Each structure stands twice: as C-alpha cells, then as structure tokens.
Amino acid sequence: MEEWTCRKCGASKPITKFTKHTRSPTGFIQPCRACTSASAKTWAHSHPHSIKATKRKYLSNERNRAKHNAGTQKWHANNPKKVAASLQKYARNNKAKIAAKIAKRQARIRNAPIRETVSLDVLWKRDKGTCQLCFTKIRRKTERSMDHIIPVSEGGEHSYRNTVLAHRSCNSRKGNRHNIAQQQRLFS
Ligand SMILES: [Zn+2]
Ligand SMILES: [Zn+2]
Predict the structure, then answer these.
(1) 111 occurs within a structural domain
(2) How many separate domains does the chain show?
(3) Range of the domain at 103
(4) pTM, whole model, 2 decimals?
(5) pLDDT tens across 112-129, in order?
(6) How many angstroms separate the CA atoms of 94 and 98, rounded?
(7) Is the predicted pLDDT of residue 176 greater than 70, yes or no?
(8) Phi, psi for residue 127 in degrees, rounded to 5
(9) In 3D, which of 37, 7, 5 has the Cα closest to residue 20?
(10) Would residue 88 count as lying in a domain?
(11) Ligand 1 centroid from CA 46, angstroms
(12) Cα 186 to ligand 2 centre (Å)
C-alpha cells in the first residue's frame, strides 16, 4: 500500500491513515488522521461556544435530530454497562436533586385528576417491551420508564390510558411536548 509522510507529525503511514477527502484524486489529504483529530480537539477546546452553537443548529433540524437520537440509542444498546455505570455515578453524586425530583413527581401524581396505581410491569406487557416514543425495543433492567402522554403537570391523568412504556432517554428528551399520534391512538 502506498505510504505518505505526514507534513505535520512527520510520520510515514499508509495512505488510508490520512484524512479522507472525497474531492482529492487519491481520496485522502494531508495531514494524517491522528493530526487532524488532534487539531480539531484543540480547536474545540478553545472554542466551546462555537461548538455548542454548531451542535444546537445541527440538532434544530428534525432529520438531524432523529439521526442523532438513533445513534445515541444504538450506543446505549451496545454499551449497557457504561450506561448503567454512568447512571449509578449520577445517582451517587446527585442524591438531593434526585430525591427532590421524585418528591415533586409524586406530589404532581397526587394532584392528578384521575389516579390509579400504574405498574411498569403491566405497561411492559401491554406495550410489549417496546418504547412508544421511538418504537424500538427497551432493555428491561436499565432503560424502561413510564411516560405520561399528557403530562401530569398539564392536567394529565395518572392512569393506564395516559401512560406508555418508553426508554428513559426518549422520555427525558420528550420533555413536555405532546405526542399527538399517541394521544389519538389511545384516546379514540
Ligand atoms: Zn500526522
Ligand atoms: Zn425510545
């Protein structure tokens, strides 16, 4: 295989270790990939705001967001141990915050117009272990959660007909936005 000498770090490497570029006749350009990613990292480090703005702009597009979410989910599915470890770490370091959040949620549920005991196990069976927000399978131990179709904070019931099974990640991303299709599906 053809070798190039990186003009930045001076190392000799196979051409495939260089930066990919579709318009270059060889398909690659200088410097080597390691150098390119190192300088991208340095740049990102010194321009945190531009990175955030670029990311925000990218994710404001519906299709990009779907792509991004699918990628995140795939990573989560392939790295269950890392996900569990980071959840545990977060739980350890944010005990007060989590307790406050749970208390707030319970208070909201107490004030819901219609209230019944909703079991995650029953939702799991009813929704066949599938997230009702992204319609992919859920890992029972680490990913499942209950999602209120109409948020309790907006007057939704705490009942089976107002709850669906969802990935924790999908649930938190959804925030308080209503999923119209689901509402129609379940309330009609
Ligand atoms: Zn290099
Ligand atoms: Zn999901």
Answers:
(1) yes
(2) 2
(3) 79-187
(4) 0.50
(5) 889 999 999 999 999 999
(6) 6
(7) no
(8) -95, 10
(9) 37
(10) yes
(11) 21
(12) 18
* 62 occurs within a structural domain: no
Same domain, 175 and 84: yes
Cβ atoms of residues 182 and 158 within 8 Å = no
Ligand 1 centroid, distance to 148 Cα (angstroms)? 52
CA of 136 to the centre of ligand 1 (A): 41
**Are 42 and 96 members of one domain?**
no
Angle ∠(169,174,177) on CA atoms, nearest 5: 170
> How remote is the CA of residue 26 from the centroid of ligand 1, in Å?
17
What is the C-alpha separation between 57 and 64, in angstroms, rounded?
10
Same domain, 20 and 89: no
Domain match, 89 and 175 both: yes
94 CA distance to ligand 1 middle (Å): 42
What are the pLDDT digits (tens) for 2-19? 999 999 999 999 999 999
| pLDDT mean over 26-32 | 95
Q: Is residue 97 part of a domain?
A: yes
* H or E stretch at 32: strand 28-32
Ligand closest to Cα of 134 equals: 2
Q: Which ligand is nearest to the CA of 31?
A: 1
- Residues lying with their CB under 5 A of ligand 1, a single-atom ion: 6, 8-9, 31-32, 35
C-alpha 30 to ligand 2 mean position (Å): 41
Mean pLDDT over 142-148 rounds to: 91
Residue 120 structure tokens: 């995650």
How far does the centroid of ligand 1 lie from the alpha carbon of residue 36, in Å? 7
Judge whether residue 181 has pLDDT over 70.
Answer: no
Residues 88 and 165 grouped into a single domain? yes
